Amino acid sequence: MVLLGKLITELGIKTTAKKFYKLFQSELHEVQNHCERIHHTKLHEGEDWHDTETVKHWTYVIGDEVHTCYESIEEVDEEKNKIIWKLFGGDIDKHYKVFKLILEASDKADGTAAVKWTIEYEKINEDIEPPNGWMEYLGKCTRDIDVNLSKARATRKD
């Protein structure tokens, strides 16, 4: 009986790794303005969007279904442009005991950048499917965010 799993995807982005990471690290409340699949997010507990003690409530669309969950930051590694979130409550608890979302943004030697998303999960029972829909969701959100961040960089007058 296999209940634990890990899904990983790495996607090339046009913006820099630092700029993509910064959106999640210090401007998380803006993510919903960059991605149409995120309908709403709000602070549930706490006052600082980026504090590890803060809990956020998310409403988002995977496939054709609206979902909700809560999220808290588990770890931030600024040197590696890495953030680990714990997702729980709402629709997550219906299927998973543990659900972690990991973002790592990196610049490549060839001058490009990439975002690596990892989902680590533990299913509540073996009949639950892996969260494959999340990988498609993360891919679409990454593309939306990258386009918006790239447009902002292109229109900025430095």
Topology:
Elements: E1 4-13, H1 17-26, E2 38-45, E3 55-62, E4 65-77, E5 82-88, E6 96-107, E7 113-123, H2 132-155
Antiparallel strand pairs: 1-7, 2-3, 3-4, 4-5, 5-6, 6-7
Descriptive account of the structure:
This protein has a single domain, classed as Alpha-D-Glucose-1,6-Bisphosphate, Chain A, domain 4 (2-Layer Sandwich), CATH 3.30.530. The chain contains two helices and seven strands; from the N terminus they run E-H-E-E-E-E-E-E-H. It has a seven-stranded antiparallel sheet. The protein is an alpha+beta fold and 158 residues long. Strand 5 (82-88) and strand 6 form a beta hairpin. It is globular, with a radius of gyration of 16 Å. The chain has helices at 17-26, 132-155, and strands spanning 4-13, 38-45, 55-62, 65-77, 82-88, 96-107, 113-123. The mean pLDDT is 92. It starts with a strand and ends with a helix.
Specify Rg, calculated over alpha carbons: 16 Å
* CATH fold-level assignment: Alpha-D-Glucose-1,6-Bisphosphate, Chain A, domain 4
Helix and strand element order: EHEEEEEEH
Q: Low-confidence parts, pLDDT < 50 over ≥5 residues?
A: none
Distance between the termini: 56 Å
Structural class assignment: alpha+beta
Write down how many β-strands occur, each being a DSSP E stretch of 2 or more residues: 7
Enumerate how many helices there are, as a single number.
Answer: 2
CATH architecture: 2-Layer Sandwich
How many structural domains does the protein architecture include? 1
**Tell me about the biggest sheet?**
7 strands, antiparallel
Helix content: 10-25%
Domain Bet v I/Major latex protein: 2-152
Family: Belongs to the MLP family.
InterPro entries: Bet_v_I/MLP, MLP-like, START-like_dom_sf
Pfam families: Bet_v_1 (PF00407)
